[in-house]
Amino acid sequence: MKVIIQLLLVFATVCTLFQTQNAETDCDAEKSLVMKDCEASIRKVGDYETPSHSCCLHVKRSDMTCVCRTLTIFDEKIVCPKKLVRVARECGNPVRVGERCGSKYLL
Question: Which residue of 5, 39, 87, 101 pairs with 68 in a disulfide if CB–CB is 3.0 to 4.6 A?
């Protein structure tokens, strides 16, 4: 019984370490920079604006598939996924068709 408990503790520790490593490799920092520098182009309210040079620099350096995939319902209250996809395309780092951007799938 003692061995089973020890094995479960080791398993739980390994799972926790694995999840922590995945969280660190996620694109949260990239998403924050894109959302900040591209705010004028991707905001939900208002007309679409051509992305700025600084916006495109961050988009080109980012994993836009990950940025799109990690949009939350709270992000979507501020950001329009369709505009984000358009910015990614116009900046030369498009999100592939079939990928999810927030709650939307690209067709």
Answer: 101
What phi-psi label fits residue 88: left (phi over 0), alpha (psi between -120 and 50 degrees) or beta?
Answer: alpha
Element (H, E) at 62: none
The strand pairing partners of 43, in sequence order, are 79
Q: Is 94 exposed, middle or buried (0-12, 13-18, 19+ CB in 10 A)?
A: middle
Phi and psi at residue 104, to the nearest 5°: -105, 145
pLDDT above 90 for 80: yes
Q: Which CATH architecture has domain 27-105?
A: Orthogonal Bundle (1.10)
Where does the chain show beta strands of DSSP type E?
100-101, 104-105
Report whether pLDDT(10) > 70.
Answer: no
State the DSSP code for 63: -
- Quote the tokens at residue 71: 């949009």
pLDDT tens-place string over residues 26-76:
899 999 999 999 999 999 999 999 999 999 999 999 999 999 999 999 999
